[in-house]
């Protein structure tokens, strides 16, 4: 991953001139009568709000017809917010085209793989590759940038909104034309293209670029490389739209930082954010918890990955929820303390701004049952009192603004190509869940009290990590295989899993036996996969239980240690977990899905050669998540109680910024968070300084 073009974060400052953490929400004043606006600003000041995102879905208000513009209401809101000491992250308003545009130009509407048009009535009903949409959108961007370039409330630009949330895959003729051009740039010649797509299979060989289409509805499984390249192209098409808007904003307002809100959370995988991160001045993210077991582990995992995307620089939590959302099957309200815990967990992982969707809960529209900072019940409500209390807590955390995540010794490698490709059709199993496997490893490490960084594969320097865990690293180019080999021979310890190393960047199988590109490094050979039926399990001789997958492993050399064998199943008595020592490091392979408990039992053995252990007191392991931020002067220790019981955390020193000290050290009540400020040890430096 390349570093952002710059890192310009829109820090609010208090009356003392000291920068603060950002706090606020999406603000949609156009949904409310004029008399509500001044009350909104008053309540924002009461809550400690210092930044809002404005005009996200305002195109139809700003440009009521193709020929007319109305900025007066937006001018007034900008002035009111500035007078209230509240900065504006001003959106370009291009997320949803107005009815007049789609009526005049229905050819901008997206088309599904089955040829159906996605009509207006919701949002994001536009093709990322439509030249007509691009023309109108950029005209709007230029108008906004010109009008508000010198407005004192403007602190950042917010390009579109959640790019790709609903329109990531468009199969229209515009998309087909753009896809062909993307492929020309990628492969240059038809011969190289035909080789990459393996078109001699099923008589798919192309003799002209114009014959190529997106993977529309087909009689059987579409070409797998066509599917993978279309995913890459679709991510690039949206990134190109981001860059087109950014170019205008940077031309007119070069001093104002530009961002867009990523969606690093479960179920959202269409955008390769590792590739996008260099296109913004600071990374922003939207995250919503999904009800279920280990939902807070998923929040921590995604916040951690967002920090990795931001090169461990501070990032902006653009959206999360104060309580219930509106789009799950059952939308549960958050319990006592969850609003604060969720917010501070993001801060622990590097968020220097905490914002919600939205400020005032809508009275109409599809999201009227989505929670907000001011609920339907109004400010005389428990929820708003919690919002005000969080504002005070964030004020107390002002000293850590600008600090960075302290380096962990363990990294979990996350790769969008492998995520996309490993879950394609016509594979050994359709039950594989890439994100869940990565999250299982993360949760298992937390259960052991071990901190880990979640890092994107793209451009990441592995050398500063003692251990790198690469679950389901399915796509391994030759260059990556060499990088991993150098990492291990140089003293690193690699752990990977089933279905890793299988294909190259073109989704072609590495021949000679699995795990393909990693076969020599791991010192094993697999002739045949052994996927398991849903619900089937196998026993291992270390008392663990495997599911989803098994492998028929043959050990290739005497330098390979068998850490566990199958006790049952087709491959009973064969190796299930192996480790090869090579150079100064080692490379281990786990051939089945063990789940969180099985991984937590196995990890101490896998980590043994690296010497990595928990630095938490024994009684805190498994129930406390520990995250550290630091700068040149201070170390900020976050302790999050993951359990439903009070947990003592003895032996800690430092100034308590958040949380209550017990009689003999810190005692954390169920689900609560404590933050301690400590002096920074001389040998502790942020990740970016260690890894470059």
Keywords:
Immunoglobulin-like, 3 domains, disordered C terminus, TIM Barrel, disordered N terminus, 9-stranded parallel sheet, Rossmann fold, 7-stranded mixed sheet, globular, 18 helices, alpha/beta, 692 residues
Protein described:
With 692 residues, the chain is an alpha/beta fold. The chain is built from 18 helices and 28 strands. The strands form six sheets. It has a nine-stranded parallel beta sheet. It has a seven-stranded mixed beta sheet with strand order 12-11-13-14-21-20-19, with helices on both faces. Strands 10-22-23-28-25 form a five-stranded antiparallel beta sheet, with helices on one face. Helix 1 links the parallel strand 1 (22-27) and strand 2. Helix 6 (173-187) packs across helix 8, helix 11 (338-348) runs parallel beside helix 12 (382-396) and helix 14 packs across helix 17 (595-607). The longest helix has 29 residues, at 224-252. It starts with 21 loop residues before the first strand and ends with a helix. Residues 1-5 and 685-692 have low confidence and may be disordered.
């Amino acid at each position: 991953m390349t570093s952002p073009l710059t890192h310009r974060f829109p820090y609010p400052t208090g009356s003392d001139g000291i920068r603060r953490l950002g706090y606020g929400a999406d603000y949609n004043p156009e949904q409310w009568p004029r008399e509500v606006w001044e009350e909104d600003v008053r309540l924002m000041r009461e809550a400690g709000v210092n930044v809002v995102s404005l005009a996200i879905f305002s195109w139809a208000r700003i440009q009521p017809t193709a020929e007319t513009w109305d900025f007066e209401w937006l001018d007034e809101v900008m002035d009111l917010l500035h007078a209230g000491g509240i900065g504006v992250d001003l959106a370009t308003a291009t997320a949803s085209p107005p009815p007049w545009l789609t009526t005049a130009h229905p050819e901008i509407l997206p088309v599904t793989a089955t040829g159906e048009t996605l009509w207006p009535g919701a949002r994001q009903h536009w093709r990322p590759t439509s030249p007509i949409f691009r023309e109108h959108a950029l005209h709007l961007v230029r108008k906004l940038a010109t009008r508000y370039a010198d407005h004192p409330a403007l602190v950042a630009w917010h390009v579109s909104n959640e790019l790709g949330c609903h329109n990531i895959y468009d199969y229209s003729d515009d998309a087909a034309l753009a896809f062909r051009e993307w492929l020309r740039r990628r492969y240059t010649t038809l011969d190289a293209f035909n080789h990459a797509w393996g078109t001699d299979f099923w008589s798919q060989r192309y003799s002209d670029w114009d014959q190529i289409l997106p993977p529309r509805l087909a009689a059987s499984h579409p070409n797998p490389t066509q599917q993978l390249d279309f995913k890459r192209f679709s991510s690039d098409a949206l990134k190109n739209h981001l860059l087109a808007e950014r170019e205008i904003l940077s031309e007119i307002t070069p001093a104002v930082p530009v961002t867009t809100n990523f969606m690093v959370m479960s179920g959202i995988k269409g955008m390769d954010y590792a590739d996008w991160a260099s296109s913004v001045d600071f990374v922003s993210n939207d995250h919503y918890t999904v009800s279920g077991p280990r939902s807070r582990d998923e929040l921590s995992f995604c916040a951690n990955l967002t920090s990795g995307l931001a090169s461990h620089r501070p990032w902006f939590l653009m959206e999360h929820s104060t309580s219930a959302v509106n789009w799950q099957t059952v939308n549960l309200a958050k319990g006592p303390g969850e609003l604060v815990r969720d917010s501070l967990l993001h801060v622990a992982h590097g968020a220097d701004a905490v914002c919600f969707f939205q400020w005032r809960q809508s009275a109409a529209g599809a999201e009227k049952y989505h929670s907000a900072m001011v609920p339907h019940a109004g400010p005389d409500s428990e929820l708003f009192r919690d919002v005000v209390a969080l504002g005070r807590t964030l004020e107390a955390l002002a000293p850590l603004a600008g600090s960075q995540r302290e380096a962990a010794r363990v990294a979990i490698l996350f790769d969008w190509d492998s995520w996309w490709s490993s879950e394609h059709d016509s594979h050994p199993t359709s039950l594989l869940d890439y994100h869940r496997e990565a999250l299982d490893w993360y949760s298992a490490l937390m259960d052991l009290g071990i901190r880990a960084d979640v890092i994107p594969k793209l451009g990441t320097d592995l050398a500063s990590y003692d251990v790198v865990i690469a679950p389901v690293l399915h796509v391994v180019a030759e260059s990556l295989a060499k990088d991993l080999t150098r990492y291990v021979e140089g003293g690193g310890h690699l752990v990977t899993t089933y279905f890793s190393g299988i294909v190259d960047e073109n989704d072609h199988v590495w021949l000679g036996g699995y795990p393909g590109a990693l076969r020599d490094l791991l010192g094993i050979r697999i002739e045949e996969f052994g996927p398991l039926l849903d619900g089937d399990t196998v026993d291992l001789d270390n008392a663990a239980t495997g599911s989803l997958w098994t492998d028929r492993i043959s050990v290739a050399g005497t330098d390979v240690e068998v850490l566990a064998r199958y006790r049952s199943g087709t491959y009973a008595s064969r190796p299930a977990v192996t480790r090869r020592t090579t150079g100064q490091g080692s490379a281990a392979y786990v051939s089945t899905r063990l789940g969180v408990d099985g991984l937590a039992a196995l990890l101490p053995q896998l980590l043994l050669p690296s010497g990595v252990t928990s630095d938490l007191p024994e009684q805190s392991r498994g129930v406390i998540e520990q995250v550290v931020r630091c700068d040149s002067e201070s170390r900020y220790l976050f302790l999050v109680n993951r359990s439903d019981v009070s947990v003592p955390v003895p032996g800690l020193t430092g100034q308590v910024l958040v949380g209550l000290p017990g009689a003999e050290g810190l005692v954390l009540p169920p689900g609560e968070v404590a933050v301690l400020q400590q002096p920074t040890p001389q040998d502790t430096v942020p990740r970016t300084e260690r890894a470059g």
